[in-house]
Amino acid sequence: MMRSVLLVAAASLLAACGGGGSEQTVDFSGREKGHVFYTYPADEQAGVSVHAPLVVQFSEPPGLAESDVTLNGPQGAVNVAVSWADGGSSLVVTPSAPLAFNSEYTLALAGMTLEGVGGGALNFVTGSAKRGAVEAQQQAADFVVSRFSPAENRPLMDFSTLRLQFSQPLDATTVDYGSSVTLTDNADNVIPVSVLSGGNRLTIDPVEDLTPGNTYTLTLTSDLASVFGNSLTGGASYSLVPEDSAPSETLVLEAMAADPVKGCNEDGVTRSPLTGAPINCVPLVAKLLGDTTVSKLSGNVFADLAYIPNYPDAAPLRISKGSLLEGEPLDVLIGGYLPAGFDSGDVTVSFVSDANGYLLPTPYSQSPEAPRRVELTLDLAFSTADSRANGAFTQSLLQVDLVGRAIVEEGRMVIDAVGVVEPEVLGIETAYGVLSFHMESYADQENAPQPVADISGPVLQSWQPGDFADRFRPGDPIILNLNETPDQTTIEPGVTLMLTQQGSAVPFQWQVDGASVVLMPDQPLSFGTEYQVALTDGVQDLRGNPASPETVTFSMPSFSTNAPRSPNATTVYPGYPCAVDPASRDLAAGEQGQCVSNTQGQAGDVLPLPTLPANRAIAIQFSQDMDTSSMVLGTSCDDGSVRVEKIDAAGNCLEVVPATLSPQLRELTIIPQAPWEQGQLYRYVLGSHSATGCGQNVICSSAGMPLQTAQLLAPESDVGGPDLSVAFVGAEATDNVFLPLRNLPKTDVNANFLVDSEETATVEVPAGSGVYPVPANAARLGVTGYGGAVTGANVGCGFTLLLQPLSCPDQKDTYLNGGINVDIVGWDEAEQAVEVTLYPPVLYTTSKDVHAQLVGVPTSVPTGPLVMRARYRDDGTGRRTLPLQGWIRYDEVEDQLTFDTALDLLLDAQEMEPLGLPLPHNLYSYPLDDVQLKGPVDFLPDGRMVIGLESLTAKDIDVNIGSGLATIDLAIPVGGVNLTFQSGSIK
């Protein structure tokens, strides 16, 4: 009976119009047609997505022309497309390009004035970027609370969830409930809560409803910090007195599918009267996925409404934590066209905190027909049934703001709302989707559906490293991907979630992101050590069901401490990972210069001057664990182990570029304070020295060895080299997706260019078959001929007493160490493929012994470390200035995604002493042209992308020693190069 009374009260509320002095009316100024009933965004709404459409709904078609619509921002008028929905009553304004971050915009309609609203037009402020320059990621230089919810003009209820937004993204490691964040009652008792953080958002959801009339205090201390190292200015404190929702009742609403059979993109589905888009569909638009990925959602929503007569101006409502919507599988299409080989499986959207909202008078009209405005803020978790898609997509989406309208039709409350979700794809690209949310209350509330019983708890679906521990490195997080979202209040380190090494507890930090539990050890995990991760049934889902207990075990790769070597930069972006000979640099001509070499006359190509888009950071990957404390940003010209400077064409430092360092164990990201200026010359410098040990302004490994920057100088193994200085030019922002890839797994785990006894080399597969496949990240060498003083040759092993070559099929390979940076450009219609830009990599290989008979006398010729430098493409003028191209295609015969590319390489054996003598040889910038590579694109169970490439043609390497005194003809056979590139951890 109470539900029926509630619906009558709600209908009365929705039928009531305004009545308060704060309400506004529409002055038509010459137009007499159409009242404004609704807008998205709401006037003065902050944090609006840069991809959001703008919606204005009228009481009837207003007769506006496209020229009557003006959107202005920081750069003036914005180009927009105008469309109509709901029979012409709803105006939809879509900017032709994403709006600027952290910027104010105004939507004006000619001849209409919204009285009392920001100068008569609709005003809103866009949100911050998740990547790029610091300025794009922050709203203010000081780290402060920029928004607290519920706002002062919205009642704080006993069932309210507290939500805060900050001027800068939070450092999640500083969010420590009971210390940096605390909610206490009037007796100073700490209140049990669930704390959710992500980006610049913090949600505090009390486990139990608060007591009406009691005073609570929310305290944030200055220990709370942003990712840019700024402490919360002055801390913050809020005194809170919740109001009474009783007698509340639950209103059951149905969020129905756009169509029970048809897909979201088909004709004839139910469309939103606000946007004209299919209702309850979650579209994901991204370069990686294209614009066709969409899932239908449906389910019942159980909304608790406070006693409406007590709140005529702002009726509070709650959707309880644990509520969920279910969706149909997403087609996973790379670039929007190429099937990945799997779909997502069923999609689940879970409410990970109590969602709060209000039914309010429309601020724009006093018309009796004006619908009520709905405001609703949701904390959601997105998960999928397929483990690969779940690992790639599962995540928490905090504080999704929906703005809508509510009306009563035929005894049912009908709510339509608009919001934008911005999930991450593979952890490297921010997708977006405009959600046209629609739900209707059941007319017969007494017989409305009850919540579906849920008796199953979380089950481990996939995990990192899983069965791929050889691809795992210190500093990588351990990730447990569950099939549903766990309740993080049930996770207690050392009790319900454990990380141990031989029974001893390993301290770690943790967080829940979607259906994933992410463990971050306080200290990097140790090579050659076995670890166990245990999840007990004390962990529960959002409805209180216990998890299936799991204990998983993995061992870190073996690591040799023998023959240590200084680390090198495996990739740099932008640029090329080698120190440059200053005499070869000509910045005015766009020339970076040649890699410095001990045979400078044979140093190879003059490298071009790269560009760096305004919305990107500088990114470096290292071959070994690094001492992050040695990475110090300089504050003046020529100062610091890491420097970023504006320079002139002569290379003179003009000024230091303010930036923030984000050092990791094997990575360094340099984030500029402001976007790179288009056309401006810059340089970044990674400091080193041509000596052993660490020193001032030197980047060092965790083993205390300096960064080795110039392998072509044939340095001693324990020294560094000249500073690695890379000049570049600022460029306009790009929407290409930057994807750094690592060569994993690899034999040379310690990156000393040797195969140590602890490291696993080529093996027979299957055992006893006599077949030795080229392992991942290796290249096979064989002898095809010899001449001069050489009367016999063999790779990997010597000769019998009769001087016949020994058989050693497991000793023919040299093992590669490196990485590559790529850009996903998008679909190319002519190629029927997704275009990928590859920035030329440098691969370092282990030394390989070539055994020879010198006039019948056996001798060994160690190649020393080999350097394989990929070359830029010819730009048509004879200069190599263009990055490489690759293509992701769908092979219908193999039913498989594939990747193909071609590389021109330069091979250097700077440390080789042929025949044990300091004889000259020709392996300096030795060309290996048109190395054709092709292989499958796959996804690990945890969602990481893996690209496997094999060489399609044979390549000859004709070694000439002493100007023809001796020759050895080597060859890489077909399939002799086997590369595996893998994306990094998604979390």
Automatic annotation (TrEMBL):
<dbReference type="InterPro" id="IPR032812">
    <property type="entry name" value="SbsA_Ig"/>
</dbReference>
<protein>
    <recommendedName>
        <fullName>SbsA Ig-like domain-containing protein</fullName>
    </recommendedName>
</protein>
<keyword id="KW-0732">Signal</keyword>
<dbReference type="Pfam" id="PF13205">
    <property type="entry name" value="Big_5"/>
</dbReference>
<feature type="domain" description="SbsA Ig-like">
    <location>
        <begin position="455"/>
        <end position="555"/>
    </location>
</feature>
<feature type="signal peptide">
    <location>
        <begin position="1"/>
        <end position="15"/>
    </location>
</feature>
<dbReference type="InterPro" id="IPR014755">
    <property type="entry name" value="Cu-Rt/internalin_Ig-like"/>
</dbReference>
<feature type="domain" description="SbsA Ig-like">
    <location>
        <begin position="144"/>
        <end position="237"/>
    </location>
</feature>
<feature type="domain" description="SbsA Ig-like">
    <location>
        <begin position="36"/>
        <end position="109"/>
    </location>
</feature>
